[in-house]
Amino acid sequence: AIALSKKVQALKPSASIAAKQRVTELQAQGRTILDFTLGEPDQDTPEAIIEAGVSALRGGDTHYTGSAGKLDLRKAICEKLARDNAVTYTPDEIVVAAGAKQIIYEAFAATLESGDEVVIPAPYWVSYPDIVRLNGAVPVIVECPPETGFRLTPEALEAAITPKTRWLIVNSPSNPSGAVLEREHWAALIEVLERHPHVAVMTDEIYEKIVFDGIRNCSPVSLAPGMKERCLIVNGMSKAYAMTGWRIGYAAGPANLIKAIIKLIGQSTTCTTAFAQTAAVEALRGDQKPIADMVAIYRERRDLIVSMLNDIPGVTCSTPGGAFYVFPDIRPLLGRKGPDGAIDTDLELVTYLLDEAGVAVMDGTSYGMPGFLRLSFATSTATIRSGCTAIGAAIAKLS
Ligand code: PLP
Q1: pLDDT at position 340, please?
Q2: CATH 3.40.640.10: which residues of the chain?
Q3: pLDDT value of residue 233
Q4: pLDDT at position 326, please?
Q5: Dihedral Cα 338, 339, 340, 341, nearest 10 deg
Q6: Who has the most CB within 10 Å: 42, 162, 261, 381?
Q7: pLDDT tens column, 299-351
Q8: pLDDT at 15
Q9: Which one, of 349, 355, 356, lies nearest residue 375 by Cα?
């Protein structure tokens, strides 16, 4: 064996990737598992995007690109930001990487010093606190309970900021809660941020396109002129265009930070896949109808899963405004007895549901909110129907 660094020994594996592995193992043993842990669209990349990728490959698009990403893609991203988000950027304020995840990682690596603080509203995406810690900084978790619609309030933000705060990271629409910060929510948060100019803001807008019922995600950069110089907008192709495996994410932000991220990419991965970048141009400039079609499908599934979960006594599921997850409150079930004794935590409930019902769900604890579960509805209505029925039956057996 070769000795590992302290920082890597302290790093937790990604809970969602671990769950995926567990499900795969159980399936390999021949067990039928209804899987609600998926963090990605179950649909395939739209045909026109695949065609663009294939013809790029055939046309010799097989070489390194610049570390910022192809100019044409950065131009297409600027057009997208102007069109969809009402924000103005030039290609030198854009960087392309192997997913939004790499962007978040490099942005923190580029800015954090040991002891710096990053404000993370909970429930949060599993990777944020670990990426922050890996870069020597301290995650400051702010609870955003169902009573506030799982949204960060101005009061909670104000209370979390200290002289050491470097970043606030906000994921809207949220994985795992589905909460969306709209215009009015950001306007209230910006009032607080204006009193604390030392705090930069990272907005992870990866689920931006997956919103329901006329709800609209908002980029704070579009609301106040002072925000552009302190915000990093993070987005990517994974969720909107069902392109998780292509690994294309991007950021828009102040040129000095973008340059620093480009430098890190230049010394780590060089660039992300060339032909995937070309396909991403087609995704951004081409027909956007596949997104609307996917959102219509997600909406139907959302309504089904919310209503089936709410029919289970002891489970309360709020209706998410965006993304493809529900985050039901299961606290009333804790303390009930199962075959192996009391179920006291959401983690124990997850194990029970897997063993008893053959249903795989994520625990709220991994997302910084114990007493909740996360279920992805990026899965078929048949799975949702049988899964929720099986969950209800397993829960009914608890005493
Ligand atoms: N941010 C959030 C909130 C996510 O849920 C995910 C993926 O699950 C990502 C970022 C990563 O996206 P990408 O595939 O672009 O790295």
Answers
A1: 86
A2: 63-285
A3: 98
A4: 98
A5: 40
A6: 261
A7: 999 999 999 999 999 999 999 999 999 999 999 999 999 988 999 999 999 99
A8: 80
A9: 349
Q: Is 97 in the pocket of ligand 1 (CB under 6 A)?
A: no
Tell me the residue ranges of DSSP E strands in the chain. Answer: 34-35, 94-97, 117-122, 138-143, 165-171, 200-204, 231-236, 249-252, 325-326, 337-338, 341-342, 359-360, 362-363, 373-376
Percent share of the chain, pLDDT over 90: 93
The angle subtended at Cα 252 by Cα 246 and Cα 258, nearest 5°, is 95
Which residues in the chain land under pLDDT 70? none
pLDDT value for 94: 98
What string of DSSP letters covers 266-335?
Answer: HTTTSSS-HHHHHHHHHHHHS--HHHHHHHHHHHHHHHHHHHHHHTSTT-B----SBTTEE--B-GGGTT
Residue 42 CA to residue 34 CA, distance in Å, equals 14
Q: Which atom of ligand 1 is nearest to the CA of 244?
A: 14
What pLDDT sits at residue 16?
A: 79
Answer for the pair 252, 233: CB distance below 8 angstroms, yes or no. yes
Cα 124 to averaged position of ligand 1 atoms, centre (Å): 12
Rounded to the nearest whole angstrom, what is the distance from the C-alpha of residue 318 to the centroid of ligand 1? 22
Is residue 69 a contact partner of residue 278, using CB atoms and an 8 Å limit?
no
121 lines ligand 1 (CB under 6 A): no
Topology of 63-285 in CATH?
A: Aspartate Aminotransferase; domain 2 (3.40.640)
Which tokens belong to 287?
């027909």
* Domain 6-44+290-396: CATH superfamily, name plus number: Aspartate Aminotransferase, domain 1 (3.90.1150.10)
The answer to whether ipTM exceeds 0.95 is: yes
